[in-house]
Specification:
The chain is an alpha/beta fold. The protein has 16 helices and 16 strands.
Length: 486
């Protein structure tokens, strides 16, 4: 960061907030922060637009924290609300706000699906100043009369375009309808489609549109990252991926897939090959998802395999490589994925593996972004350009050498038993973990439900014995009798 960038104190931040940020090594503002803070601190409505990874959270977080008054009264209702599209982003934003407001005694609560209601309701009953939540859980808590939004003076809609893509706008409108008419509203987004503009006009008062990017800024994102695009055979992909993961200088790595099943299969395959791997996808319970992200952030695993649930808004330091195991659906998805590396001015590497049937889709992405990879190079795990392009030693195989297996692994990060609403969590036996460290009893096909108490599908063996009796019995003589009444 250039020394010419203003400090947060110079931009008008509260000394206590600036001190809390300085303790985390954050002293100078990014462009989106420098542009939004003066207006936001004056209480103006604004629309902040900047690409992912540029520090939008503090752009709205500092003004929000300064407008909030610490209130130790039991049952104090929230004064600020931040609405986010995903659970992972909810946890991250709440953590950033809690750290920045630590010296002012600001209480921040994150609410999202996959966790039991009771702890969130109990915390709200004790009182909080700031709530960060996903739309579904916010509505649920409000309907239960546990969340009172009548005193909210600051509303933030973060990653608004992602909420549009995920179909959350009707829920957002239901939430906004419960807020006071007089408030400050800030909307932050990487892109600004028409429906988001319409939302801003409906719920904001003379907002100022701040764009901390140029029309060709996508080009800058692309140029900042070293990219490799290869046409790969599905049967050779895992072997190719295992060798790419042994590139010289590789740090934390994210591998993206289209489907939940594929993400888990890749994670299992890489684990068997000796890599420290975790996965994040919708088939995992919330506890397992949070365990995986904590292990990745803490360096206990250095490979995170994920569906696009993790492609937007997750900011993890030290991600040097992003690998698209399959061709992304469109150019937006491609930019969001590769944007996990090369953040805050750092460099990064992106590798995209394109199946034969996806070449036309890739060529569309290539054309829109103006990339030089129209015809991806046919590539196998033994191709010379794989080794020379990424600095991979020639003698590596598809298995990580035992001498390099130095990470603690996913099992070293304790999984939090989130329980099921209305029930006490059952103690977990030591033998009840699968290879990825997740409890077998807590698997679920729905990422938005608490999973520890999920009822298994009933099989014939599970039914009462009477249900398995035949309706007619045959005697030796060939005659039949009806069974006794049950």
């Amino acid at each position: 960061m250039s020394d010419l960038a203003p400090t947060f104190l110079e931009l008008g931040a509260d000394p206590d907030i600036a001190r809390a940020l300085a303790e985390s090594g954050i002293e100078r503002a990014f462009p989106i922060q420098a542009m939004t803070l003066p207006l936001a601190l004056d209480g103006k409505d604004l629309i902040g637009q900047a690409k992912t990874g540029t520090g939008k959270t503090l752009g709205f977080g500092i003004p929000l924290l300064q407008r909030v008054t610490p209130d130790s009264t039991p049952g104090a209702t929230p004064q600020a609300l931040v609405v986010v599209p995903t659970r992972e982003l909810c946890v991250q934003v709440a953590g950033d706000l809690e750290q920045a407001g630590s010296h002012r005694g600001i209480r921040v609560l994150s609410v999202y699906g996959g966790r039991a209601y009771e702890p969130q309701i109990e915390t709200l009953a004790r009182g909080v100043e700031v709530v960060v939540g996903t739309p579904g859980r916010l509505i649920d808590l409000a309907q239960r009369k546990a969340l009172d939004l009548s005193r909210v003076r600051v509303l933030v809609l973060d990653e608004a375009d992602e909420m549009l893509d995920m179909g959350f706008l009707p829920d957002v409108e239901r939430i906004v309808a419960q807020l006071p008419a007089v408030r400050q509203t800030m909307l932050f987004s990487a892109t600004m489609p028409g429906q988001i503009v319409a939302l801003a006009r409906r719920y904001m008062t003379q907002p100022t549109h701040i764009r901390a990017s140029e029309p060709g800024d996508d080009r800058a994102t692309v140029d900042a990252i070293e990219q490799h695009v290869w046409r790969a055979h599905p049967l050779d992909k895992v072997e190719l991926l295992a060798r790419v993961l042994q590139a010289d200088g590789r740090g934390l790595t994210m591998v993206f897939t289209r489907t939940k099943r594929k993400a888990q299969k890749i994670a299992d395959d890489l684990t068997e090959r000796g890599f420290a791997v975790a996965s994040v996808h919708g088939d995992l319970g919330q506890g397992a998802r949070e365990q995986a992200l904590r292990a990745f952030r803490n360096g206990k695993v250095d490979v995170l395999v994920a569906t696009d649930v993790a492609a937007r808004g997750i900011d993890v330091d030290g991600v040097t490589h992003v690998i698209n195991y399959e061709c992304p659906d469109d150019e937006k998805t491609y930019l969001h994925r590769i944007g996990r590396t090369g953040r805050a001015g750092a460099s990064g590497v992106a590798v995209t593996l394109v199946d034969w049937e996806d070449v036309a889709r890739w060529q569309m992405i290539d054309k829109i972004l103006g990339l030089p990879f129209k015809d991806p190079l046919e590539t196998y795990s033994t191709s010379d350009h794989v080794y020379t392009g990424l600095g991979i030693p020639k003698d590596v195989t598809g298995r990580l050498a035992k001498s390099q297996r130095t990470r603690e692994g996913l099992q070293a990060e304790q999984i939090e038993d989130l329980g099921e609403t209305g029930r006490k969590p059952k103690p977990q036996r030591s033998g009840d973990r699968d290879q990825g460290g997740r409890s077998r009893q807590r698997r679920s096909s729905g990422g938005d439900r608490s999973t520890s108490g999920a009822k298994p599908a009933e099989t014939t063996a599970d039914k009462p014995r009477s249900a398995n009796r035949r309706r007619r019995r045959t005697k030796r003589g060939g005659s039949t009798t009806a069974p006794a009444a049950e």
